[in-house]
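User: quick one, fold this
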Amino acid sequence: MHSRAAAVGEGAPRADAVVPIALVVLLTAAPADAYVDPGTGGMLLQLVTGGVAGLLVLARLSWSRIIAAFRKGETAADRHHDRSGAGRQA
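Assistant:
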């Protein structure tokens, strides 16, 4: 009788073999001699544009965390205190 844990991994490709195999397949691919019509080209353009827009929104929403990773010696509480205006002089 096989255990359930052993059955899960059976037949699955090893993770360290996937990348080299993918590289060989991609680098040795023959030309497809295929036609990309304007509808497909437009769809690909929308995909790229949407991806870039999504990355920009993600960066905008995470900007304070990105900047905080590069600041030294300043905590989140210090930044919140500075933004609230409580520490400002009149």
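User: anything notable?
Assistant: The radius of gyration is 25 Å.
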